[in-house]
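User: Sequence in, structure out. Go.
Assistant: Echoing your sequence, followed by the structure tokens.
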Amino acid sequence: MRQSDCIAMILAGGQGSRLGALTRTLAKPAVPFGGKYRIIDFALSNCANSGITTVGVLTQYQPLELNTYIGSGLPWDMDRLNGGAFILPPYVKGKSGEWYKGTANAIYQNKQFLDQFDARRILILSGDHIYKMDYRDMLRRHEETGAVLTIAVIDVPLSEAPRYGILSADRNGRIFAFEEKPEHPASTLASMGIYIFDRDVLMRYLEADENDPGSTNDFGHDVIPAMLADGCPIFAYTFSGYWKDVGTIQSLWAANMDLISGALDLNDDSWRIYSRHVDLPPQTLAPTASLRSSAVTEGCSVAGTVENSVLFSGVTVEEGAVVRDSIVLPMTVVRRGAVVDRAVISHDAEIGENVTVGCGDPNVPLPPDPLCTDGLTLIADGVTLRGNVRIGRGVTVTRSVETWAEGEEELLQRAARRPKGEDAL
């Protein structure tokens, strides 16, 4: 089929509360990744590489930076007269208007946008996953099976299955059961949150869902179970490549480490991941610099030691400083004598001289942050740490520290606990 017959809708409005301080001022899909990318670059680049050039990006939480980043869609070759990239926030329509109430409601509220195009297929994507996929293969599978809905799935370990929507399918791939985040999963086939719908069927079920007062307006909880109950032909498309949901500090850190190790390959010229980035001069490595197994982006200045880490644009690591097993976001400075170990440092931070981040014996005894697992430490954007302070593991720092005093931990630590329920988008 022609890809012009397909429109992509990227759900990019989620708060990403499990990413803690990283999403205080921006939506999860706008979080930086891999030294020069944003998370949403993967969905946009997959669309571009698959020949899908009409893309709606549904934004809601903290949309300004994401909207500015996408702009006209030029980096993804989507600045077009016919089609292109469209930012779709919730808006007032006549006397009505409301926030997107769920994934299904978000698509329903943009029915007028979809009506502008005659596409027979609607591809629905999440804007917060790291993967490379040719959607043309999934579209072919959709056509061959005669499905009205095709769901991309990936096999996951049984221990991780309760985190996902889990489906069961027969030997032909036809899905006969679907359960959202089951306590006792019946299989290990996990939904990737990637759907291809026949347009007419989608709109019919969205209309019914919108008129159901008991619905949560979610694809996994409501729409897909309703379609299965009605006997709709729903098929699975099995994906075997790299895929990671980077919805937590731990998974975001792990995906960046996969980039360094080569488990995630972004050097394939046949399937490039495109991004919008600021033009900066080349990296500068001083004679005292020592780099091992790291990704160092343009504009960085390194005179210290960097091991198994990702440095984003404009990061400075001074002589005598050590950055190890860490992610350091743009324009952060790590001063001489400082040690950053197994940490995520947000943008525009300053780690002062002789400061230690991620140590076993802190002199700033912050309470553990439930979002910082596996010994990771998170430093929020704009934070300055000075005065030889030592920050331990498994904590978040959201306020600058010059020296530590009794009771200071209550001011420093604002653990961002995940609210009940899922992010809206």
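User: And one key feature?
Assistant: Residues 414-424 have pLDDT under 50 and may be disordered.
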